[in-house]
Amino acid sequence: MTAGTVAQVRLIRAADRFHWHNEWLESWQSFPATGNFDLAANAHGMLLVHNDDRVDAGEGLDTHQHQDIEIITWVVDGALRHRDSRGHEGVLHPGVAQRMTAGTGIRHSEGNASSRRDGDPLRVVQMWVPPEHAGLEPGYAEADFTDGLRDGQLVVVASGRREHADSSAISIANPFVALYAARPRCDGRLTLPAAQFGHLFIVGGSVDVDGVGALDAGDALRLTDHGPLDLTATDDAEILYWEMHGGVRG
User: Fold this and answer.
1) pLDDT beyond 50 at 250
2) What is the arithmetic mean of pLDDT over 50-70?
3) Worst-scoring range by mean pLDDT, 9-13, 19-23, 73-77, 231-235?
4) Could you tell me the CA-to-CA distances from 175 to 17, 131, 241, 244 in Å, in that order?
């Protein structure tokens, strides 16, 4: 933290997020993403996109292209089907995180792996952060963190930070960010790392954050220049937390 800075906390309730939907997709967006061509204008720290998406069975996005972005996808419920132009193909389940480095350009499709006959819903949280440098070689990685999440503590899911180089985290091509996940049981306590910018998202359940109060599923905190932050699960919960040391606009 910079000497003399004042910590800021902004609470975003689930219902106050940007909402977009069509016949098969319902998207609750922490930062307006659909049709937004200036993502940096609404970013918090380096977090450009944070979409909480529900996809009907048998549906999904047809092949489309991305460039110069790090895309992190967290499966909450159901199964996600992925296929890209670099030959990566598979199905991801809850507890699995995926990173796609778009770099110089990658085309991919993604959707609900469940058939319309089976009818199983899909819920994913998709998050975008910029790489440190443009023009990278496109890449892909995934990892299953189910075992590590069982003790209810914070798990580093994806990171570019040097101190996580020897962890099981998926690498991100940005040395200033890290994504954590946790599934604390009721009454379990966690301490979130200090950061210049932090983003706490309640995937499910409910928690009580010291100095803030109760947060429920879909709620988020945008933190600026804050120290370590303590929270207690008031129900079995699942959280995602971004630690960021820098912003896209300075």
Assistant:
1) no
2) 88
3) 19-23
4) 28, 9, 16, 9
Cβ pair 110, 61 in contact under 8 A: yes
Q: Regarding beta strands 238-244 and 177-182, do their DSSP bridges make them parallel or antiparallel, or are they unpaired? A: antiparallel
Amino acid making up residue 225: D
Enclosing H/E stretch for 148:
helix 146-149
The least confident of 59-68, 96-105, 218-227 is: 59-68
Rounded to two decimals, the pTM is 0.94
Per the prediction, the chain carries an average pLDDT of 92
The closest of 139, 156, 229 to 189, measured between CA atoms, is 229
* Ramachandran category for residue 225: left, alpha or beta (phi over 0 → left; psi -120 to 50 → alpha): left
- The DSSP output letter for 117 is T
The top-level CATH class assigned to 8-244 is mainly beta
- Contact (Cβ atoms closer than 8 angstroms) between residue 204 and residue 180: no
> Which residues, at least 6 apart from 59, have a Cβ–Cβ distance to it below 8 Å?
24, 25, 111, 112
